[in-house]
Write a structure and sequence with these properties.
Two copies of one chain form a homodimer.
Chain A: H1 5-15, H2 22-34, H3 37-53, E1 55-56, E2 63-64, E3 78-85, H4 88-97, E4 102-106, H5 124-133, E5 138-141, H6 147-160, E6 166-169, H7 185-193
Parallel strand pairs in A: 3-4, 3-5, 5-6
Antiparallel strand pairs in A: 1-2
Helix pairs in contact in A: 1-2
Chain lengths: 198, 198
């Protein structure tokens, strides 16, 4: 049996989302069809509204309703420290800690030659411009500890060398609550390499 | 930091879907915002269209664009055998095997007192009516082997006793490719209990 056409289209669309496979897409589409019509209409409107209202901040490329975004326009934040992340979701993860009071720069990706993403496809040039035009004291590289994240960090740190700016990166090591026994070798090596004096 | 309002609304809505937690909802919402406006519009339209066009079949309560549904109106199918499932997704799972040529009855749930779902909240009455008004030879109960599924199967089989109809249920036992060592006790007991002569 084939799915009835409108259902098939809906499932196809749900499958486009990251980490949603065919089973999840089917489950979500069927769940949607079980909702009431006004609810479905509301969901559709929410999507369109969010897409219309939310844009990239012209300073840090965070997603926001306002431009500059809530963070860039907040005078209580330290705009001399820029934390560089690859995606908005990473910015949100850092914000949830309530530990960081600087501003951000969202690259909107990482350099990944396998996926055809080069240095010019992400917001690196904008970061360099921002640093050359403003008085920045420190740039914290907070990219994921993956091959692509590492390569991007290295690339950016080289570009930043000529500027009079501190460059740091977030620590790699054992996550809290984890177990040495089950940690992988690279994580343990990094944890030893980056040990701190107490 | 709080999410910007339209984003928060969108994430809330995604979280309502089954098996979508806060992280997945955030990921899906951010992915949606990265789509182009026409794509978002298309997705919204697909949802509304699917909701408008797809209704329950008045015979078997499958979801379909037509009424009766494609299965009920297919004259090549054996309408004397009814397979009872709890959800449309179970019907789809059985259809994918291409092994079953009868028709279905989708209960739209199972009896679950803990969730406040009684026998009258699902399509049991409609099943009984269907059996009393048509010449049905066999009813195959294909509910999930959970406490609720079992209870519902038992309940239906009792209701069907007065009718001159064969009642069967799908086999419970070890799934193909699994390992006795890792199977749970109840599954193994069931597999032994339901052994077949070869």
């Amino acid at each position: 049996m084939q799915y009835t056409k409108p259902l098939a289209n809906l499932i196809d669309f749900f499958e486009r989302f990251p980490s949603i496979g065919p089973k999840s897409a089917q489950r979500m589409a069927l769940h949607l069809l079980k909702m009431s019509s006004p609810e479905v209409q509301k969901f559709a409107n929410l999507m369109i509204e969010a897409k219309e209202k939310i844009h990239y901040c012209s300073i840090c490329y965070n997603m926001s309703q306002s431009d500059p975004c809530e963070i860039c326009s907040n005078s209580n934040r330290d705009d001399k420290t820029i934390c560089v992340v690859s995606e908005t979701k990473d910015l949100l993860a850092i914000e949830k800690t309530n530990e960081y009071n600087g501003v951000y720069h969202v690259l909107q990706g990482v350099i990944s030659p396998l996926d055809g993403i080069g240095a010019n496809d992400i917001r690196i040039r904008e970061l360099i411009n921002r640093i050359s035009q403003n008085e920045i004291e420190e740039v914290i590289l907070a990219l994921n500890p993956t091959v692509e994240g590492e390569a991007t960090s290295l690339y950016i740190s080289k570009l930043l060398k000529p500027f009079n700016v501190k460059i740091s990166r977030i620590a790699m090591g054992l996550p809290i609550g984890s177990d040495l026994e089950y940690a992988d070798e690279i994580t343990i090596s990094k944890a030893i390499e980056c040990r701190v004096l107490i």
